[in-house]
Design brief:
Elements lengths: L9 H9 L2 H30 L4 H25 L3 H25 L1
Helix pairs in contact: 2-3, 2-4, 3-4
């Protein structure tokens, strides 16, 4: 079998490109940065509309919880088994926080 790069098919070359370890680190880093920010923003938004206290205190409480969740998202991104699980574990709660804040905001 010929081992030149042109002898292999395009999908095997693409598969070998995505098997590189630095892409997993890059994906986890983006999940920690971008996903952590999205999780923190939606958490803060949810707590601001969901808590039955004064609006200013609800916003402050949401921001304080969001800082902790952003740090936890970064830890989760590198502690989990795969990059896909890291993205799912960060974006799923972010989507749930966003849906909850939209539902509560529409009901108010």
């Amino acid at each position: 079998m010929d081992s030149t790069p042109f002898a292999s098919t395009w999908y095997s070359r693409l598969g070998s490109f995505f098997a590189r370890p630095w892409l997993g680190v890059l994906s986890r880093s983006l999940a920690a940065i971008v996903g952590g920010y999205a999780l923190a923003a939606t958490c803060s938004m949810f707590f601001a509309v969901a808590l039955p206290i004064a609006r200013s205190q609800a916003v402050l409480t949401g921001m304080l919880v969001a800082i902790v969740l952003c740090a936890c998202a970064a830890l989760w991104a590198f502690a989990t088994r795969s990059a896909l699980r890291a993205w799912a574990g960060i974006l799923l709660p972010a989507v749930l926080f966003w849906l909850g804040s939209q539902w509560i905001g529409a009901a108010a």
